[in-house]
Amino acid sequence: MSKTISELFPSLRENSSSETNKRLYAVLTAVTDLIRFNKAPINATSYFAIILKTITENKHKENQTHDLLKLFSLILPQVSIPIIKNQAVNVILQMINRLEKYVTTETALNSTMSNDEQSLVKSGTYILGYVLVLAESNQWSTPEYLRGYSYILKLSVNNQQSKIRQKAAEQVILILNSIGAIQTNAKGGGVHKHLANVTSQFSHEIFANVTHETMGTSFYALNIVTEALCLLPPSLISLLLEDIIKLTSLSNSALTIACYKAIGSLFFKTNPLIGANIQQLIEVLFQHPPSGIDYKSTVSYTELLTQSYLYFVKLEPKLCNQHVHKYFSILMNNFGSDKAEITNCTMNGFKSVIYECVNSEVIQQGIYSFQQGSGQTNRELSPLESIISTIESGLRLTFKSSWDLVLMIICALFEQLGPNSYPIMNNTLIGLDQLYHSPDFHYQTHCRQVFIQVLASIGPKNFLSILPLNLESHPNDKVKINRNWLLPLMRDNIKYTQLSFFIEYFYPMALGMKERGKQVEMDGRLVEAKNLEILYSQVWDLLPGFLNHPLDSDVSFKVIARNLGVALSDEPGLRIVICAALTQMINKLKDTQITKPPVYIPLRKQHHLVTQERATQLLKSVSVFAKNYLPILFNIFPTSNQDQRYYILNAIEAFVSITDSTNLNTIFNSLITKLVEALTLEGIEKKPTTTNSMDTTTTTTATTTTTTTTTPKEKTKKYYLTDLTIGFVKHLDEENIKVLYKIIKPQLKCSDPGLQKRSYKILVKICEYHESFILQNLTKIKALLVSNLMQSPSTVKKTRLKCLREIIISLTKSSYNKHLLTEEELELAAINENEKQQLDSNNNNNNNTTTTTIKPKVKANIGWVQLKTKFIPSLIPEIILCTKETNVKCREIANELIIEIGKVMCLISAKLAKQKRGISMEDTITLAHNEAIHEYLQLMMAGLASITPHMVSASIVSIARVIHEFYRDISEEFVGQLVTTVLVLLASPHREIVKAVFGLVRVVIATFKDTKSIESQLEVLINGLAKWGGIDKNYFRTIVQILLERLIKRFGFDQIYQLVPEDFKKVVTNIRKKNEKKEKAKELLRNGGNSENMDENDDTKSQKSKKNKKSKKNGDDNDDDDEQMLASDEEGGSDRDHSEDDADIEEFLFNVKPKKTKKDTKDNFLIKEGEDPIDFLDRNAFSHLSAKAAADIVAKQIFAKAAKNGGKLQNPFQLDEDGRMIIESSDSEDEGKRKRERKKSFLDQVFEENEEAYERKAGYHVTKAKGLKNKFKQDNHDDSDYSDDDVDENLSRYNDDLKSNFTRRTNAKSVRGGGAKSVIGSKSVKSTRTNKNEGRIETATLRYNRVRGVDHLVNYQDRDNKSTKTVAKTKGDNRKRDQKFEPYSYIKLDPKALNKRKGSKPTTFTNIKKKGGRK
Predict the structure, then answer these.
(1) From CA 265, how far away is CA 167, in angstroms rounded?
(2) Helix extents (H) in 76-179
(3) Distance, CA of 437 to CA of 449 (rounded, Å)
(4) φ, ψ for residue 967, nearest 5 deg
């Protein structure tokens, strides 16, 4: 089959700018003509044959060889493999002849080549390698193939030409991994023996004759060996390994690292070595460590040993178990290095080897040896004991700088050993405790992490047997240390432990503390009583940890169950802790029961593992006590506060979830009975409060007082009984749900807001967990929820909307769609119902005995068409109105419902859509979605005809939200009609309608790229903008500006300017000027960024300039922010970007604050929702606080930095030598330390009020002062009497003009010289002003001058010696010796002085001061 030249050689073009490509194309044209002359087809085979024949017969010029080889290399991959194999020997011989002179001698290998020679060698290497890759196994015995391979090997170590070397190395790797080179019958799939011999002999010759000049060749040869070593037989591997290890003694860093990399290749790939060979190799590596000076080699050496043991344990676990301890003893000294790279690498290696190599066999052997050899001295330690001893030695002073890393290794060892670390590592734990309490230890944080891991590994019982709490000891006791700091540590980290230990140890301790606290309080020792109360609560706080997967709850829980029930009843302060503990225990065990374990669980995770079967047993043992705990929780609920009730309800729901159906029905029926009685007695309506008349008798008043005190308790009974019912809803069957719904249905319309709110909470739970019941009664519940929705209070309205949301969401879930029927099924169901009723009546008459029947699954008595035509249209008006509610949560739920209803409409249309011929199912569903959204928008547009502006604006906003969400399913023609309709409302006199119209237009502009939808109504829109921009400038200023900017970007300035009225054109012109200024500012920033990098070479500069031009072009093309937001499918197939415009639209249009990103909430500890301030008296105000979230983010950042530093946690606080935190004192004498901040005085506020404006003004005046100074010097350069002091004195007067009158009055004592006192009332000022006020005024004046750029030395100090000089008490300032002019002199304004031709100089000064005083 013939092809074109461009198809065969796509990289070659006739009009190429490269001379090389032009020459190649000319040769290609000649070859093509030759093919056509021979009447052969234009294909890859023809080119292959012609070029090979030309090269073989040598019918070309010498300077055309490299071009022919280049063309041959380009066409070779397109030739069929059988043809290449047929001519393989010929091709190999021709390439050998061409490459021979470049590889035969060392001089030729290391000499420089011309460009043509480089092209020839690269092409020849590629052709030769390509043919050798296709060679079969038996062909590697022929000398031509081996000779060609040896040529490529020699080129792969070329010192001078890097591109040739890289090309040859690639071909060597491809040849060694080719199918013909690998022997399938060899162990590990080794390479062909002839190839192996050639490769090893070639490398051995290079390694055996290494000199300083040939180190580069050895380095390149190591790269080849790295790929080939694992493919060689063991004998050749050992030969090369001896040579490689000798190379490590040459003290060349790069060469040594390459050697370690080559050796490490054995541990990443399959090789023929056995476990004994690996052990011998590791022993040799132990004997040849790198020099300590080269830290990079040490890091590579450590990584090599780590990887060797990780491979060794997989290959031969038993042999590795006997030698693994040597790894730790050899590398332990690395922690004495001052290089963080070495210590971090060693720490990571230790942890990896501990997790992988310290297996169960090593652990059991170590425990047996420890038990047998306890008390014996000079015995042989097991590998595990040696590892522990080696790691413990890391806590010596020699390794003090790496103690934090050693502690992390100890933590990993405890984690791997688990419960087996007791008692073999007891001494390690005791030593850590001693270090923790020593004053010179600064790694308390890391030590706490070790204690946490020890608690999880050996459990609190064994932990406290080694390190007891000693709570009765004095805090300063050095012998019997009080470790009360362990209580918070245990509270947060105890899990998977024995509950019996809490019963035996902590529960009696808590009772003793309680009794002792009462006795101490009676004795009057209130401080000690308070401390005991705190310890009592801390001990009980441990209960949730002991109930987090208790391993013995089937035996121990029944021992403490009664005590916990008594504590719930008698001690209100413990209710939160006990309820949280019980809830956590049940929920954790339920999660474990339903969660499948992973396929592979590492050993460190197997120590505390509860299987699904064990979790079921534990839950069964706890569920027995549900019938006892539920009545207790019911009884304490009315007497508990609001915080306690939350935990009690969670505990009730947890126990209900594990209660069997019989007991659950019994308890629920009892609760419902009491609820009905309470409702019957108290009623569901809110009763008006009655007041006693003033003329009642004393006895009447007394009786009414008693009744009023008891009435609130009776009234709250129906409330808390309704609250208790909420916990049962999730786990009730359908019959009980019907009973419950029947009871709460009247309460949903009652006038009592408290009862109504609680009833709606129950209905929300029913809608969430019982979809089948809701769908069966969909029409009734809808009518109940929608009727009188707008007359409900906001709290009730919110819960009603939640019910609607759950109903709508349940319709969208595919698992619930089977409950809905089609229209045909509805008709059949109606026919079958009558037949079933007749059959049931006959059966009931025939059967006298009652029989239990299993009811089939009932489907909802509603179809898709009814749902679309009746149910959803009835919801839309009320939900649209709720989008304008003042309650934030109510608005959010209503906005969510608007979107969810759109999804349901799409779902219904897809279900009802019927596929037509010639249209795929995907297209059918797409068309159905389009029709559904169009119909949905038409339903919403009915609200535009409303009388109230509230409903009209809400409808427009809802339509905009739907367009914003479903823009892919809306046609542009429909949008154009919609915009035309909505723009008519610009004539409305109501601002909220007009604002909503502008918002919808903005959404359309941002959503649709095509301008046709708006262009036809552009004049109407602009006239509306001009009209309302003139009527109410303040209200519509931002809206008008945003829309005009978008329209100008979309349609261009000229088109918009023509349509704008005359009186409004200045606004459009102003917007254009602002945009031009922004563009200029962006260009300045770009140019400024490019001008900073002036030291780069010309190539990089030209590349940067090209990139900048491209970026500018892209910036001009993508200047429209809305088009960037769309990110159309044509450019990448991704959805639009909602990062900028969407958040802005959310805030502008939908009155919803945009969600903050992670960067925004990183350091925020207070979060505000919407525009409403936080009411801290509200019990829900805590939900606005995010201190914990912000603290978690900060903690993650700290640990992320620690991970980068190899696990080192950096303390953010400054510590002294003893490890104590340094707190700077407020009265410190050191000026470098920060002083205590005081409240700003009036002077400070005055001077700092407009600081930015002062700074800008000061910069101008300083610049002007420098100009005056230079001008003054230039004008008086001939006068020798002028000095710098004279200039500064005159410029100081210019600076004095910047000061206010207040500053001049307060600074009158130091107008010049700094020592003169005020002329007017100096004595009285001195007598009344204290030193403190004087210092404050001086400080404020200095700050005032500094902010304005005024030199403070002008008024206070002489500029030459910077020392204060006192001046005699005189009226006015004294004249200096070298001062020419009088103080308080000035230059008269003379117009002639501005005449440049006359050159007059303003040197005439007029004195203000006379001998008698001032003028």
Answers:
(1) 21
(2) 81-86, 88-103, 106-110, 115-133, 143-155, 162-176
(3) 15
(4) -65, -25
For 212-221, the pLDDT digits (tens) are 888 888 899 9
Query: Reduced to 3 DSSP states, what percent helix, strand and coil does the chain have, rounded to the nearest 5?
Result: 70, 0, 30
Alpha helices by DSSP H, listed for 483-525, are 486-493, 499-501, 507-522
Q: How far is CA 1414 from CA 1253, 1373, 1411, in A?
A: 34, 11, 8
Distance CA 260, CA 304 (A): 7
Question: Which residues touch 124 (CB under 8 Å, ≥6 apart)?
Answer: 69, 95, 98, 99
996, 1001, 1005, 1010: CA torsion to nearest 10 = 150
Q: From CA 1282, how far away is CA 1284, in angstroms rounded?
A: 7
> Nearest-CA neighbor of 1008 among 902, 897, 901, 1126?
1126
H or E segment at 1410? Answer: strand 1409-1410
The three-state secondary structure class of 1186 is coil
CA 181/CA 192 separation, integer angstroms:
5
**Tens digits of residue pLDDT in 173-187:** 999 988 888 876 655
Please name the helix (run of DSSP H) or strand (run of DSSP E) that holds residue 1291, with its range, or none.
Answer: helix 1284-1296
Summarize pLDDT for 290-322 with one digit per residue, the tens. Answer: 987 788 999 999 999 999 999 999 999 999 999
Alpha carbons 1047 and 1072: distance in angstroms, whole number: 12
**Which run of H or of E encompasses 1385?**
strand 1385-1387
| Residue 179 DSSP one-character state | T
Give the span between the Cα atoms of 867 and 885, in whole angstroms.
27
With cut-offs at 50, 70 and 90, classify the pLDDT of residue 925: confident
Which range, of 870-884, 915-929, 938-952, 1030-1044, averages the lowest pLDDT? Answer: 1030-1044
Helix (H) or strand (E) holding 438: none
Which position has the token pair 């600081």? 1251
The pLDDT tens digits for 1074-1092 are 888 888 888 888 776 544 4
3-state secondary structure of 566: helix
DSSP string for residues in 296-326: HHHHHHHHHHHHHHHHHHHH-HHHHHHHHHH
For residue 329, what are its two tokens? 């003893």
Residue with the two structure tokens 């049940």: 586
Side chain identity at 841, as an amino acid letter?
Answer: S
Q: Sign of torsion, CA 662 668 671 673?
A: negative
Q: Which residues pair with residue 191 across a beta bridge?
A: 182
Does residue 166 carry a pLDDT above 80? yes
Q: At what angle do helices 575-594 and 526-540 cross, to 10 degrees?
A: 20
- Termini Cα distance of the chain: 113
Nearest one of 980, 989, 1053 to 1020, comparing CA atoms: 980
Q: What are phi and psi of 863, to 5 degrees?
A: -110, 175
Distance between CA atoms of residues 990 and 760, nearest Å:
36
Other C-beta atoms closer than 10 Å to the C-beta of 728 total 24
Question: What are the distances in angstroms from CA 611 to CA 462, 547, 590, 884?
Answer: 24, 16, 11, 52
Instruction: Give the number of other Cβ atoms within 10 Å of residue 1043's Cβ.
Output: 21
Which class for 1317: exposed (0-12), middle (13-18), buried (19 or more C-beta within 10 A)?
middle
User: In terms of Cα–Cα distance, which of 806, 817, 822 is closest to 768?
Assistant: 806
Residue 193: both structure tokens together: 């023996």
Q: Which helix (H) or strand (E) holds 1414?
A: strand 1413-1414
Q: Is 1368 left (phi over 0), alpha (psi -120 to 50) or beta?
A: beta
Ordered alpha helix ranges (H), 987-1097 = 991-1007, 1012-1015, 1018-1031, 1033-1051, 1053-1059, 1065-1092
The number of beta carbons lying within 10 Å of the beta carbon of residue 1225 is 12
**Cβ(498)–Cβ(459) under 8 Å?**
yes
Pairwise CA distance, residues 302 & 296, whole Å = 10
Rounded Cα gap, residues 290 and 302, in angstroms: 10
For residue 381 the two structure tokens come to 């330690």
